[in-house]
Amino acid sequence: MHSDTDGDRHNRASRLRDVPAVVKLLLASMALFNVGFYLVVPYLAVHLSDTLGFSAAMVGIVLGLRTFSQQGMFFLGGSIGDRLGRRPVILCGISIRIIGFVILTVADASAAVVLGVLLIGFAAALFAPAVESANAEFGRELEQSGVMRRTELFGWEQMSSRLGTVIGPVLGAVLLMFPFAVSAAAAALLFAGLWVCFYLLFPARDATAATVALPEVWTTVAKNRAFMMFAALCSMQFVALAQVYLMLPEHLDRTVGSQSALGWFYGGAAVLVIAGQRPMLRAANRIGRRTAIVGGLTLMAMSFVIPAVPFAFGNPTAVVSYLVLSGWLAVLYLGQMLMVPTMRDALAVLARERHLGAHFGMLNTIGGTLALGAGAGTGLLYDHAASAAAPWLATAAVTAVAALLLWYWSRTNDPWLPRPG
């Protein structure tokens, strides 16, 4: 068995070595994007509440605005990438994110902080769909040439992203001893380096650039009813994940009295994804698309029940809080690992492999719009609900309803059919 495992690892490494240099750049950039992101954003709630004195509801609104400016604008950003080409859009997006971090470095008023947060989010709405759609197209080419399945490349993508969420929170936790501006400045410098890498290494390669008008792209996406329904239901995974940045620090603050463990939780969740993504992808391939996607979303819904249980027996101790939060994040990210690579492949199939920036962007736009309302709603529950379990149970219920609707809708729809070849 040992030799088989070594052989599997060697084959996987060989396949990764066979991918073009531009794919390696994309995978590396996903790790570095998240290093910069997690240097700042997970600790933004602490900065808003402790330094600026925002209420939980206001923190939820600001975090929701960040998610909306990013995920909510993905459709526009992805469409622009389809129209103008990926390279200029990626470079522009990184530039805007640098400006956003610079604003956070010097901002001492709430309005300036909100502006910086919005710019950081909108920047990602430009470069992230371009990177994701490029990876999807390269993945199709790699699959057609027999190098690796596209879902496997998506698995590497998830692992690369999570590598950044290991390094970023650890660096952010170290930088917590310094003012928040230091973390923001470090993130700005990192993205400046990324801009140089993309300027030098990313090719001007996009056959659709400058040939398709934006209204035609938008019409193509909007008229794809099967895609729109699928994207709307799957977008709940974004909503569930967005709650981590409000609910984790809020729960720690209310039950432990300190948010000092934030970095450890973010880093631990990322390590779980790095170690578990490939086994979960193999499980998804065995059980099939429908079960993997719906089952993953169901696991995500169930995870939110875990932290709610101790409140039935009184206020949890610090040890119990650490344990239930660990269980919550583990089940939440196991569900995401099971769902996301297969979901992204199904999205590309439903999009008929055309205008992938806009199609992937639409998924994120729906999710970001819903996350804006969910962030405000969760914050209001924290401020006003009689039970401390209410935010957890409400999130679990909404996510479970989406999973049930997805299971029902998927019984008669195309993304679950076997792909040719």
Automatic annotation (TrEMBL):
<feature type="transmembrane region" description="Helical">
    <location>
        <begin position="361"/>
        <end position="382"/>
    </location>
</feature>
<feature type="transmembrane region" description="Helical">
    <location>
        <begin position="184"/>
        <end position="202"/>
    </location>
</feature>
<keyword id="KW-0472">Membrane</keyword>
<keyword id="KW-0812">Transmembrane</keyword>
<feature type="transmembrane region" description="Helical">
    <location>
        <begin position="226"/>
        <end position="248"/>
    </location>
</feature>
<feature type="domain" description="Major facilitator superfamily (MFS) profile">
    <location>
        <begin position="22"/>
        <end position="414"/>
    </location>
</feature>
<feature type="transmembrane region" description="Helical">
    <location>
        <begin position="51"/>
        <end position="68"/>
    </location>
</feature>
<feature type="transmembrane region" description="Helical">
    <location>
        <begin position="293"/>
        <end position="313"/>
    </location>
</feature>
<dbReference type="Pfam" id="PF07690">
    <property type="entry name" value="MFS_1"/>
</dbReference>
<feature type="transmembrane region" description="Helical">
    <location>
        <begin position="260"/>
        <end position="281"/>
    </location>
</feature>
<dbReference type="InterPro" id="IPR036259">
    <property type="entry name" value="MFS_trans_sf"/>
</dbReference>
<dbReference type="InterPro" id="IPR020846">
    <property type="entry name" value="MFS_dom"/>
</dbReference>
<keyword id="KW-1003">Cell membrane</keyword>
<keyword id="KW-0813">Transport</keyword>
<feature type="transmembrane region" description="Helical">
    <location>
        <begin position="319"/>
        <end position="340"/>
    </location>
</feature>
<dbReference type="InterPro" id="IPR050171">
    <property type="entry name" value="MFS_Transporters"/>
</dbReference>
<keyword id="KW-1133">Transmembrane helix</keyword>
<feature type="transmembrane region" description="Helical">
    <location>
        <begin position="21"/>
        <end position="45"/>
    </location>
</feature>
<dbReference type="InterPro" id="IPR011701">
    <property type="entry name" value="MFS"/>
</dbReference>
<protein>
    <submittedName>
        <fullName>MFS transporter</fullName>
    </submittedName>
</protein>
<feature type="transmembrane region" description="Helical">
    <location>
        <begin position="388"/>
        <end position="409"/>
    </location>
</feature>
